[in-house]
């Protein structure tokens, strides 16, 4: 018997809150995408997406065509339920290809208060660290 979707989502939220409280924030690198459209509103740290780490391994079309990501920081409406259901990041972050969504602090690792942007881009004042 499969657990109901609400119970699974509730367990993931509880785990996420505990990890949020226990994990130190990560530092963004040049080219990382900082995502905080909903994270802090939901009690999570912002996501630090290592764009260039992924770009070294995959062509742009893998994420921006096949997985449905728009070519604009903040241009996607991605919910954790989508990722858990295997959409967007969840296509690879499924526990088989890459770590699963239960490892919240691996993505939700940014310092609280960060706004969605591309770190180190011309929009944020050039390269550097925060």
Summarize the structure.
The protein is mainly alpha-helical. Helix content is 28%, strand content 6%. 21% of the residues are buried.
Topology, pairings included?
Elements lengths: L4 H18 L10 E3 L11 E3 L1 H7 L2 H7 L13 H5 L32 E2 L12
Antiparallel strand pairs: 1-2, 1-3
Keyphrases for this structure?
single chain, Cytochrome C3, mainly alpha, disordered C terminus, 3 strands
What features would you describe in this structure?
This protein has 130 residues and is mainly α. Helix content is 28%, strand content 6%. The chain has a single domain, classed as Cytochrome C3. Strands 2-1-3 form a three-stranded antiparallel sheet, with no helix packed on it. The longest helix is centred in the N-terminal third of the chain and has 18 residues, at 5-22. The protein starts with a helix and ends in a 12-residue tail after the last strand.
Rg estimate, integer Å:
15 Å
- Output the CATH homologous superfamily: Cytochrome C3
Q: What's the helix count? A: 4
- Beta-strand level of the residues, as a percent range? 5-15%
Low-confidence stretches: 124-130
Q: What's the order of the H and E elements?
A: HEEHHHE
Biggest β-sheet description: 3 strands, antiparallel
Overall mean confidence score, pLDDT: 80
The third-level CATH topology is Cytochrome C3
Distance between the termini: 47 Å
Question: In the CATH hierarchy, what is the architecture at level 2?
Answer: Alpha-Beta Complex
Strand order of the largest sheet: 2-1-3
Give the structural class.
Answer: mainly alpha
Number of domains: 1
| Overall helicity | 25-40%
């Amino acid at each position: 018997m499969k657990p109901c979707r609400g119970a699974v989502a509730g367990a993931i939220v509880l785990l996420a809150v505990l990890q949020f409280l226990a994990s130190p924030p990560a530092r963004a690198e040049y080219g990382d995408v900082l995502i905080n459209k909903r994270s802090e509103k939901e009690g999570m740290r912002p996501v630090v997406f290592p764009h260039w780490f992924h770009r070294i391994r995959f062509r742009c079309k893998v994420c921006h065509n096949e997985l449905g990501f728009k070519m604009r920081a903040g241009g996607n409406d991605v919910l954790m339920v989508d990722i858990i259901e295997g959409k967007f990041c969840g296509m690879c972050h499924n526990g088989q290809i890459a770590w699963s969504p239960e490892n919240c602090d691996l993505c939700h690792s940014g310092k609280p208060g960060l706004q969605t942007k591309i770190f180190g881009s011309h929009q944020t004042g050039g390269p550097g660290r925060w």
